[in-house]
Amino acid sequence: MLEIMNLKKYFNKTKAVDDISFKVEKGEILGLLGPNGAGKSTTISIISTLLKADAGKILYKGVDIEKEPKKIQNELGFVPQEIALYPSLSGYDNLKFWGRIYGLKGDKLKEKIKEVSQIIGIDKRLNDKVEEYSGGMKRRLNIGSALLHDPEIIILDEPTVGIDPQSRKHILDSVKEINKKGSTVIYTSHYMEEVEYLCDKICIMDEGNIIAKGTKEELIESISAEEKIILQVENITGKMIENIKKIPYVDKIAYIENEITIKKKGNNVDYSEILEAVSKNQGHLTSMDIKKPDLEFVFLALTGRALRD
Amino acid sequence: MINIFLKDLKLFLSDKKTLASIILMPIILTTILSFALSGSFTQAGSDFTLNIGIVKDYDKNLEENKFTEFMLDFADKYDVDINKFQGEENQFVEFNPEKIFFQDYLGNEEIKNFLTYEIFSKEDGLKKLDNKEISSLVILPENYIYDMYINTFTNFRNKVEIEIMSHPDMNYSGSITRELMKNFNDIMSSIIISKNVYFESVSPYIDIEKIGDNIPEILNSNEYKNGEIDIEERTIDSKNYISSFAYYTVAMLAMFVLFVSSYGGKFILDEKRNNTFQRQISSGKSLQQILLGKFLMMAVMVLIQSSVMIGFSKFVFKINWINLPQIILITILSSLMVASLGLVITAITLKTNNYKVSDAFSSGVVQILALFGGSYIPLEIMPKFIGDIGRYTPNGAVLKAYIKTLEGYGFSNITGNILVLIANIIIFLIISILIIRRKSDVELIKS
Known about the structure:
By secondary structure, chain A is α/β, with parallel strands linked by helices. Helix content of chain A is about 35%, strand content about 30%. Chain A has two domains: about 1-220, Rossmann fold (3-Layer(aba) Sandwich); about 225-290, Alpha-Beta Plaits (2-Layer Sandwich), CATH 3.30.70. In chain A, the strands form three sheets. A six-stranded mixed β-sheet of chain A has the order 6-7-8-3-9-10, with helices on both faces. In chain A, strand 9 (about 200-205) and strand 10 form a beta hairpin. The longest helix of chain A is centred in the middle third of the chain and has 16 residues, at about 165-180. Chain B has helices at about 1-15, 15-35, 60-80, 95-105, 110, 120-130, 145-155, 170-200, 215-220, 245-275, 275-280, 285-315, 325-350, 355-375, 385-390, 395-405, 410-435, 440-445, and strands at about 50-55, 115-120, 135-140, 165. In chain B, strands 2-1-3-4 form a four-stranded mixed β-sheet. The interface of A and B includes residues 45 and 74 of A.
């Protein structure tokens, strides 16, 4: 359905997207996973025809979208990372405007507004001004505005940033629901668990490149996955990290705030060596967890950094 | 595009603060200025009369004697027959500066039709002026009579300074009085010049005591008696007077419509900042469609603004908006002019990606245009260069076209203003197209 070929985009001399290629099949949910600045938003901005690529090609249903942007624009629902709504208008007026933008009118538009507002759970607050909505409601309306015209392909750019867990769950369930109704979805996030929960296929991006792609299982398989050890430590020091790195079974190590993530190699593991390295460096260990490999772990394995570094 | 326009209009109309500033403010300002400056304008339909006060700051007899003494001295010095300046042979008896000013000039039929005067002491005159019982006070200075004799009968020239004091609220009346005095001064100057030319031409050939013989003839040939004073009075060709209410309704309208032009830039930057602009682009709407929506929004807002002002002034100030087709034409052109100017500001705002352009326009440029366009003070009483510039400003052209229409002039008399408006529209559109064409995709979506 959508084929991205050797896509490149530079902002002055900075490589935002560096020769990436991937395919999205009809009906699937593709996740673009990566930290901030990985190039996810630039990639989807090019797919959404907001930006022009410096090199490469994007085919939508076999048509080059640079030559015929209307082909994808008419069938695309784009949910930008920021809330793209008119705060001084009501939820209803916002939906009406975006519906009309996509060519809906009359009874059909009214029906769709009713249907979508129920899906996103704002039907009881439809006549209130958007500026009076909670963050979660705004996010849901932001998504709803892209669904009115039953788009064949929906792009959601980090749609759950900065919202409460309940709204987040509602959004994730809505995306699954939309996909079930037949829409193809491209979902970007730096939340590993969201991508794991939603996506059939995943592209992991870092510094403008796709460093791995496949299903979740394929990605984990690809790094000969091992368990990872997660330590919660108060007072992490550089010397402590150095000491842990010197332990023979420690392959890679990353830390953020009070959390140290260790990728081990081999099965010959003596955990007391880690505990000793922590206590010797005046660290106070509050918990130690041994986890099965996940996408976070894949990212760590591939880049040597935690996903949210 | 219609959808974008309707949304922008809804956004505009939902912002009560903005509405108050562009619709309520001009109404309030018009009301305040109209009442405050009503003395500077004549009331529509009224007969125009000008009441002035005159102060004689001189002593007639004393100054006449002083001149006689001067001439006797002169006769003595040059051995001229002394009888020329005394008794029945005195040829200066016929010359009477007071009669020339009061009877021949101010008593002239045309002037009498609109001007009445009273003689006051300086103190009383100032009081009357302060109470607006008279519009101006003309002070004939000390030595006025003596200097007039000297200037008329000798080849000396003494400066005569007639002082004119006007009430600041009655500026128009003050201007007319100044013009009248200037006119009198011009007439007297031409007499003096004729006399001087005569003196210089004949003195080498005629006896000094006979030089004065022809002076009465020169005096009699002059204009102050014969009504050649050219005074333009609009009632003569059936035109209407403009009241302060009519003037300031139009002046505030011409100024406040300009504020609308800054909203296109503000709206598009709001949309970029809240990403609705990018969302519209991704849905297949072109930049041109979005800008056209803003253009229409600004044009319609000006139409709404103008209709409210015109309606308000009609029902509250009882202003007679005659020649409706012409008023509609000016209003439509004014709305297109504002929308085109707004498009330039929108294009620059897109280019610079900040609110400074639209802010600077509404807080600075509009005020300058208002001043030059005559929205604060009528161009007729401003220095000539301001008036010349003002006629070519967009708001100046709108103001002039409305005022001329209200005065009763037809289309042929406002053609110049209409052409200025059309030229402004074309220039603004070309500038905005040139700016927009040079934008890259990254510049476009950068929020």
